[in-house]
Amino acid sequence: MRIEKLDQNTKKDLLEKLLKRSPTSYGSYEQSVREILDDVRNRRDQALFEYTEKFDGARISADNILVTEEEIREAYREVDPELVEIIRRSLHNIRTYHEKQRQYSWFDSRPDGTILGQKVTPLARVGVYVPGGKAAYPSSVLMNIAPAKVAGVDEIIMTTPPGKDGKVTATTLVAANEAGADRIYKAGGAQAIAALAFGTESIPKVDKIVGPGNIYVALAKKSVYGHVSIDSVAGPSEILVLADETANPRYVAADLLSQAEHDELASAILVTTSEALAKEVSDWTDRFILELSRGEIIRKSLDNYGHILLADTLEDAIDAANAIASEHMEIVTADPFEVMTKIRNAGAIFIGEYSSEPLGDYFAGPNHVLPTNGTAKFFSPLSVDDFIKKSSIISYSRDALEKVHTDIEKFAEAEHLTAHANSIKVRFDGKD
């Protein structure tokens, strides 16, 4: 990995380079995505089935698009029972963590007859998109469905691309069943997003779409926002390790590569105050690449977006970390909890040398659906909050309104909205 001196120029260049990876930068795909969305919106199931055969090589119809109970039972027969138990233990941790995020309705009643409050309501129907193809991601299934179940969503619809044999990956089905998906449909890509957003004869329209996907899925979610809600437009994976001379270089190198293996656009950055650590981490990454199955992808990722930044002080390193606002941040310093208090921008923060990033991906409990491309400056991880909505409650008695009615009327008249003022005034003009 390249080692660079951290200064204002290198930080500025790095931020500009990272932003180019955003899905919003790939305008050349947008026309294709728009055509698919419009086609599915107009021709519904017919278009959905045609695209599924074109892109996934599977012949899907109204008779077999919905995953059956027998297909789920078959999936359990195919998956190693030990893995099923691991999925259950992981799911327990995820549920337990998200149950602490629950919000409840509240009401504040005052003696003058004023009642103010907030009504919390779960979303009625949510669509969860799960990638398919060569890779299977049962962890993403758990992370997207579990908070929706905890929130109390009435119906969770999952879509995932089928294989050429018309089947869904067994581990994906097992994870979905364990997490509590109500219905699972064999549909992927932009066409599945269109089906969830607009509805077809087979797939019902949802209120919100969550879940990761390729560039076509990301742009499709961006395009349907407004017809439905979405979680985010996710970009490539990122990790930033903030370390000093006390860090274990072998651990740091291994953690950086854990994200670099996702794809060639993934970003892996070390910010450190130790030149010795920087050199050792660079050496260890070279050694690990020779041993790992996705070494070629890792090498291209590091060539494109892998950086070791050498900072003069820990404060400079912290400033750089906050500017980058990485999806995953590991803190491996002499006093990591003290450093953590100074971090403003990160999707998930991993503290100490035994809190490596994959712990969060699979097992600890916090959600691994995180803000990318610097959006950790204003976005949060997927949570129970994403699956609820809030309504304001307002109730005034006549006595309570009478005390403030002239204030409201004057405010409305100042905005030249006389009908607003009149709506209050008629209650006290004595003409009833």
Automatic annotation (TrEMBL):
The keyword NAD is assigned to this record: yes
Protein residues bound to substrate: S237, Q259, H262, H328, D361, E415, H420
Entry's Gene Ontology molecular function annotations: histidinol dehydrogenase activity; NAD binding; zinc ion binding
Residues at the active site: E327 (proton acceptor), H328 (proton acceptor)
Role noted for this protein: Catalyzes the sequential NAD-dependent oxidations of L-histidinol to L-histidinaldehyde and then to L-histidine.
Enzyme class: oxidoreductase
Entry's family note: Belongs to the histidinol dehydrogenase family.
GO biological process: L-histidine biosynthetic process
Database matches in PROSITE patterns: HISOL_DEHYDROGENASE
Protein name: Histidinol dehydrogenase
Keywords associated with the record: Amino-acid biosynthesis, Histidine biosynthesis, Metal-binding, NAD, Oxidoreductase, Zinc
EC assignment: 1.1.1.23
CDD domains: Histidinol_dh
Residues that, per the record, bind Zn(2+): Q259, H262, D361, H420
Record: residues binding NAD(+): Y129, Q191, N214
